[in-house]
Amino acid sequence: MEIEKLAPHIEEISRALGGKLSDEQIAEELQKYVDVYKLSIPVAKKTIVKKHGGDASEVSAGFQRKLVELRPSDPNVDFVAKVLSANTKEITVKGEKKSIIYGFLGDDTTTLPYTAWEIEDLTLQKGEVISVRGAYTKEYQGRVQVNFGNRVSIKKEDPSVIGDIQIAQGPPKIVTVSQLRESMGFVEIKGRILSVDSREVSVQGQAKNVWSGIIADETGKAQFSAWSDFKLKPGDVVRISKATVKAWRGIPQLTFDDRADLTKVMEKFPSAEELQQTGVSMVSEIAAMGGAADVTVRGVLVEIREGSGLIMRCPECKRALQKGTCKIHGRVEGFPDLRIKAMLDDGSGAVGVVMNRELTERLMNITLDESMQKAKESMNFDVVKDAMDDSLTLKLVTASGSITSDQYGLSMIVKDAQMAKVDVKEEAERVLVELEAQE
Questions:
Q1: Upper half-sphere CA count for residue 380 (Cβ side, 13 Å)
Q2: pTM of the entire structure?
Q3: Residue 326: other Cβ atoms inside 10 A
Q4: Least enclosed by CB within 10 Å: which of 69, 81, 422, 427?
Q5: Quick count: other Cβ atoms within 10 Å of Cβ 53?
Q6: Residue of higher predicted confidence among 69 and 366
């Protein structure tokens, strides 16, 4: 995010910390939390203030955003927008009838649907400009929806004060898979369908079919969800217009329904086999995207994390046990398993990786039974994790899988991994020195 847009938040953090950090230090941390770790600005502000011993209650939870910046499941959003439509209808909620107002809002970035659930003393009319504080968002079929609840504050503004708001118009934006970003409005994309499956879901109590799969082009792969039957088959090359983009834990996902225009095109395009051969991506590029589906990264395992090695799992839910206890099922008789939890760094950024038993056995060249025997002989489960520290730390690994993003950063559940055949200790130490210098 541009530093100019962060200026009021930097000033607020500085006041909450009583000048403990310079504006430059605050700006650097804030940009890292927002751009790299993908935290919302309110969460990032509170995190920085808490980290440096300040009172997090002194920073505001909300901040004014453009509509295109709103994300699903945000409990507190502030914005200024024009009312494009306002309709009233009566619904039944928990056996009781109530009236709601619904329609569309717009600003110079996009348009979004809204619903006002508490309309006592509230009137909205087409063409009004309103400033909203304390609304919340949800998601429906991949699109952000704004909700006005009992904590919202709505103020009608003089349009001449705010200026004319030109509602976003024009054709869908033509993009490649690697350019997909959440809430970028309508997009047009061309790609080959690599897989597609149908499943039934419940939407507002009604059964509905959705077709999900993977679409790819020369720049990458993305998951998609089609809420109408376009008769898609693996191998089809399609052009989709008026699709939208949502994100699951940072991974952009393409969503479209019967409002979209979908055509199957007969033209030269990379084969499915060529598109399945994922090239190596930089972690920094994936962080900028917020996540990615089915990618490959190559980097140094700079840390073997706690929870690696020989573990016991709950026989009911398969969760890892803590001192023989499952947080869901309590004290249980667990079964053994192997896993690797590590930090992989490629010099541009880091991603947490988790590898299952099969991959752990391959990289460590040891079986689960052999690991159990080692633990019995030493009477210590930690012996396996210690062996991982010795064998894997500062080694170069290529890992493939989907990378997601949350408040803790990037993470990958690894589908495949290979150890490099060269000794890269010197290069790994160089990366570590650079990382320490940045702290």
A1: 7
A2: 0.56
A3: 20
A4: 422
A5: 9
A6: 366
